[in-house]
Amino acid sequence: MSFKNLDTLYRQVIMDHYKNPRNKGVLEEGCLTVNMNNPTCGDRIQLTMKIEDKKVMDAKFEGEGCSISMSSASMMTQAIKGKTVEEALKLSAIFSDMMQGKEYHEDEIDFGDIEALQGVAKFPARIKCATLAWKAMEKGVKEEH
């Protein structure tokens, strides 16, 4: 597949998550809630997670922002559900490396739709948009445990 076709496909995946977000909403009381914002551009997110026995049982988000931040939140909530807290944090660290343009081993992890965000690394001003939901997740699970 040519680079142009791949770039188009990635844009379509991002827009699909933006227009049809997965896990949009708020979990019931008693769940972990984290509010974060990016004052530079105005993106904001409220992430709620249900964590039991050091495992992310469910995750939902509410928020406002650009297509990158909201798509990333949608993809992140899909990726961490069912994972242990340790696995979710590892995924976040690898995602952070990807956003900084660092190499990561594709055989080490299956990012699925998240790979569509790798082009964001070329636009430093947008990296904070892509990582906002991930930083909220990190903050929440670190405070919880």
UniProtKB/TrEMBL annotation:
Signal peptide: none annotated. One of its GO terms (biological process) is iron-sulfur cluster assembly. InterPro entries: NIF_FeS_clus_asmbl_NifU_N. Residues 10-129 form the NIF system FeS cluster assembly NifU N-terminal domain. It holds the Pfam family NifU_N. One of its GO terms (molecular function) is iron ion binding. NCBIfam families: SUF_scaf_2 (TIGR01994). Belongs to the NifU family. This is SUF system NifU family Fe-S cluster assembly protein.
